[in-house]
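sanity check this record:
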Amino acid sequence: MRRALLAIPLALLAASVAAQERPAVPSENDPRATEPPPRPPAGDTPERAARLFEAIVRDDPNHAREFFFPREPFLILKGIADPGRYWDVLWRHYERDIHELHASLPEGATFDRFVMSRRGGWVERRQEANALPYWACRHSWIYYRAGEREQRFEIRTLINWGPRWYVTHLR
């Protein structure tokens, strides 16, 4: 009996700690929403895209880590058996893409601008194996200059968490 009484407070403590570690779900990603919220504006996405370009120039994925979808919200967002494993795969792809873009970048290339696409849309719960809904933006572009020549590369998928946009698929 005494052991059972001790188990209850320990279970409550564990649940409390787990709840504190999980980030709150922003209103923009509320699973109870019956209508999609307005599409979040670009906000600071152009500045973070410029930092991604710097990361490519430096060949340093960690320099643009804050532009990649954060792990803890991803664990809540994805409704799959092992979202942490999938996040790890996506992060490795992001690293690989930055290294590959670095290798293809002409010497002296400079960031010009970020153009956020209007393609994509509201992704409801249970679509694309998601536990929560979100806005997706597909096929945005980073433009850069190499000498007098303008060039670009695609950011394949951005998704929102709250009002902020994050990369999930670079190439």
